[in-house]
Design brief:
The structure holds two protein chains of two kinds.
Chain A lengths: L17 E2 L17 E7 L48 H6 L1 H12 L1 H13 L4 H8 L3 H13 L3 E4 L6 E4 L2 E5 L4 E3 L1 H8 L5 H26 L5 H8 L3 H10 L1 H10 L3 H4 L16 E3 L8
Antiparallel strand pairs in A: 1-2, 2-5, 3-4, 5-6
Helix pairs in contact in A: 2-3, 3-5, 3-6, 4-5, 6-10, 7-8, 7-9, 8-9
Chain B lengths: L11 E4 L3 H4 L6 H13 L3 E4 H4 L5 H12 L2 E4 L7 H18 L8 H17 L4 E4 L3 H13 L6 E4 L1 H5 L6 E3 L2
Parallel strand pairs in B: 1-4, 2-3, 4-5
Helix pairs in contact in B: 5-6, 5-7, 6-7
Classes of the chains: A alpha+beta, B alpha/beta.
């Protein structure tokens, strides 16, 4: 699939693309003011041994080289300066190239239950529809509805040559240097957790996904010992106890993301190896980690 | 797992609000173990009004549940005025700034004041066995350092969640 993907004729290192994120979903707060923002969209085929230095970007010729060197610690990329928006990324054909990818992310961020299935397959795949159903406690029809939708979106690959079918999913990541906006599997996991965690649901309802990402960063920094929970509250503008509540609610997201999200370092370039979190290997977890994952 | 909680009767256990969130929802095994440890020790956790801040929504519900179950109570504590209590808060602030790599003015006042509240409490209540319970790592460092520097280590002990209920391996954590 990757080899057949058409490449941009004039690839630049970053910021090939500008799209409006304002209309992407309602939970983003505050809306992006300028109406356009540079969004970097790339995908890689995940394997635990894949180094970010050697990823194979596979979507519509967005990028031919790894981007982590250009990533800033705030999650943005070293690309457009604030006052010099190049028209090149705004060329209609460039926007059209990524239309599908952009639409999938919009779809995910509008449907947390769908996102939950995607993150599950992404993290614990290859997996099967019955495993999805059992581990996520979904009805058979609901599970297949979501899987079909994810396959249609191109987010999940279904191998129908086996019984049961084998499902796999590639991680996706968006980094926007203007907002800044960061979306990685870890972020999607946090977003999806609203389906089963009332504290996350409350936080999202009250503050939206933008602050959830901020809380996620804050939680990571806290568990790395670099901030107190009240300092996080102050930083992101929520009550002290709300910060405490969301920080603990996000522990599973951080603990799993550290093990399974190949973009985890993009969210925590500074502290990804310093987090004091429960060791999943020692726990009876739901779902169980795959046998070959250690 | 462990039932060897260091909490014993007659202790004055001052808790920071984070404890009520660190132990998870009331259905969580950690919550149940923690509550059992507190009740078995026969203590009632003292939550200073000063450290709660504004409450609302599910965060308020979580604290309220502990109060209603009777293993925690809110206490009014005067702000630290004794010299060594005030100094303790200053030491805590400097420690937190140091361990987090943040400037001192970025340290939240409430994080720093807990050390002072504990020492003030000891002085006013003539208590000989005070526990400060907080699950916030950097904030805990601040209290510990202040207690040590002000010579209260015989009177004030600082614990985190895991000191009370042990490591939580073996618990089920819902991952997704």
């Amino acid at each position: 699939m990757d080899a057949a993907t058409p490449r941009s004729t004039t690839p630049s290192k970053t910021s090939d693309l500008a799209v409006s994120v304002t209309t992407s979903q309602t939970p983003i707060q505050p809306p992006v003011e300028k109406g356009t923002a540079s969004v970097l969209y790339h995908r890689l085929r995940y394997s635990p041994t894949n180094s970010l230095k050697s990823v194979d970007f596979g979507l519509n010729g967005m990028h031919e080289e790894p981007l982590n060197d250009a990533l800033r610690t705030d999650g943005g990329v070293d690309a457009l300066s604030d006052d010099a928006l190049s028209p090149e990324p705004l060329a209609p054909e460039r926007l059209a190239e990524n239309a599908l990818g952009f639409a999938t992310v919009v779809e995910l961020l509008n449907h947390p239950a769908l996102t939950r299935v995607y993150v599950y397959v992404c993290y614990w795949g290859p997996t099967t529809p019955p495993e999805v159903r059992d581990d996520l406690e979904l009805s058979k029809s609901t599970a297949y509805e979501y899987i079909d939708r994810l396959v249609d979106l191109g987010l999940v690959t279904r191998d129908e040559s086996t019984r049961p079918q084998r499902l796999t999913a590639e991680p996706i990541a968006i980094v926007d240097e203007h907002a800044p906006i960061v979306i990685t599997p870890t972020v999607l996991h946090a977003f999806a957790l609203q389906e089963i965690d009332e504290d996350v649901a409350y936080f999202l309802d009250r503050y939206g996904i933008g602050k959830l990402v901020a809380a996620l960063r804050g939680a990571g920094l806290h568990f790395a010992g670099q901030t107190t929970q009240r300092m996080v509250a102050d930083d992101i503008g929520v009550r002290d106890t709300e910060a405490m509540m969301i920080i603990y609610a996000l522990v599973p997201v951080l603990a799993v993301g550290r093990d399974h999200d190949p973009y985890f370092e993009h969210l925590f370039p500074d502290v990804h190896d310093q987090l004091d979190l429960p060791d999943l290997d020692e726990r009876d977890t739901t779902p169980s980690p795959p046998e070959d994952d250690t | 797992m462990s039932t060897d909680s260091p909490l014993v009767a007659d202790q004055d256990v001052i808790v920071d609000a984070n404890i009520f969130f660190a132990i998870g929802h009331p259905s969580n095994p950690q919550y149940l173990r923690f509550r059992r440890a507190v009740q078995r020790a026969g203590v009632v956790l003292k939550l200073p009004q000063r450290v709660i801040g504004e409450l609302g929504g599910p965060d308020r519900d979580r604290v309220r549940q502990a109060l209603e179950e009777g293993w925690a109570e809110i206490i009014e504590t005067p702000d630290p005025t004794a010299g060594d209590a005030v100094a303790a808060s200053d030491i805590a602030r400097r420690t937190i700034a140091d361990v987090t790599g943040q400037p001192e003015h970025e340290v939240e006042k409430t994080d720093a004041i807990i050390a002072g509240l504990a020492i003030q409490y000891v002085r006013e209540q003539a208590s000989t066995d005070v526990v400060v319970l907080t699950d916030d790592g950097p904030a805990r460092n601040g209290v510990e350092n202040a207690v040590r520097a002000q010579g209260y280590t015989d009177t004030i002990t600082v614990y985190g969640r895991s000191d009370i209920i042990g490591d939580d391996s073996g618990d089920t954590m819902r991952l997704i």
